[in-house]
Amino acid sequence: MNLLEGAHHIIQTIEEAGGEAYIVGGAVRDMLLDRTPGDYDLASSMLPEQIIDLFPVVIPTGLEHGTVTVVLNHVPYEITTFRSEATYSDRRRPDEVTLGVSLEEDLTRRDFTINAMALRPSGRVDLFGGARDIEERIIRTVGEPAERFNEDALRMMRAFRFMSQLDFSLDEATEQAIVKLAPHLAAVAIERIAIEFEKLLLGPGKQRALQAMLRTGIERYLPGMTSEIVKGLAQQSFRGVSKDAVWTLVLDAGLAKDQLTRWKRSKHQVQLATRLTPLLHRPLQDWDRYRLSDEELMILREMTGTDYPERSDLPIRSRKELAVDGKDMIRLGLQKQQIKEALLHLEYSVVTRSCPNDRVTLLKEVERWRTQSENK
Ligand code: ATP
Ligand code: MG
């Protein structure tokens, strides 16, 4: 049974028990685009507790939103009870989720026409012209754009994200509403914005999405962003950029390093970005190849398309291969902090070939380095 057959099996099981179920959201969109969906999300008239009774393996992944995960042949399927979302007073999240509404209501709460279709083996439900908008390659809100962005300002970023991922254009009325409501983005949790922005930067339509952002002026409500940086991002032509390296692009386009903390990215992402950005536009030195991790080297290779020789030509490949070690430093009477610095100095000297990796030479070099640094 493939993924789609699994989804059909779930729909059939729910229908036989007297309920309704449909494939919804991104999977319907992807199928119409002739893409194979990565996962199939389902919506159903049944309540979580009824679904739990129908299938042998069900994980209650989000009961408060009406979501459970049915596991079929080791594949997880998210099933969410038809729901509506009432009054969004803070423009950040729904105040109240109502379960057990109709399919029509469930589709009406969704963001864009292309994301608001439902599919089951017996046919497709498309209330807002989603299939037509896929045909015309256009991002358009379900219902009145200003109203929808007022409910949830994140949708403005999602519009640009889908433009980029799908290489679609933006409906004119939708764009005009973003021009008006862009300031509301400032109230949205930065983590949610960052997820959409990362997807945007990795999409094939990055350039047109960023240009649309510039037309609306929305970059002013993103931490540390300026129109110059966004223009820079639009012009970049790096090749394969991995998900973790996307912030390297942003720093390269001119975002100040200390602004990155405002985006609340993971330590790993921040470290990659700050270490790799300075290396994008110059050839790697031996010292760079020595100190970078395998992952960092691979990312640079993929982004710049340059092939660096393996590390095998370096005099040493790690501190362990140094002809002296920490014990030698203790014997020389160095203090703890000094030992770290001394070893780093020796690594650098050996890797850059200003010293051979020879015990006697290195011990002499430590003495010289110590006298010099103590006289500073
Ligand atoms: P992806 O393939 O990137 O996951 P997706 O369409 O599945 O794309 P999700 O963010 O996973 O996008 O959301 C799933 C579905 O939930 C969307 O297709 C849309 O119908 C609905 N949705 C998600 N976020 C919102 C939102 N902020 N406002 C309204 N509907 C939303
Ligand atoms: Mg999804």
Q: Please, could you describe this protein's structure?
A:
Helix 7 runs parallel beside helix 9, helix 7 (154-166) packs antiparallel against helix 10 and helix 12 (246-252) packs across helix 13 (267-276). The termini are far apart. The strands form three sheets. Strands 3-4-5-2-1-8-9 form a seven-stranded mixed sheet. A two-stranded antiparallel ribbon has the order 6-7. The chain is of the alpha+beta class and 376 residues long. The chain has four domains: 1-131, Beta Polymerase, domain 2 (2-Layer Sandwich), CATH 3.30.460; 137-235, Hydrophobic Seed Protein, CATH 1.10.110; 239-314, no CATH class; 319-374. The chain is 47% helix and 12% strand. The chain has helices at 3-16, 26-32, 48-54, 103-108, 130-136, 145-151, 154-166, 172-181, 190-202, 206-216, 227-235, 246-252, 267-276, 286-291, 294-304, 326-331, 336-351, 359-374, and strands at residues 21-24, 41-44, 58-62, 67-72, 75-81, 83-86, 96-99, 118-120, 123-125, 138-139, 169-170. The protein binds adenosine-5'-triphosphate (ATP) and magnesium ion (MG). Adenosine-5'-triphosphate binds at residues 25-26, 110-111, 115-116, 152, 154-155.
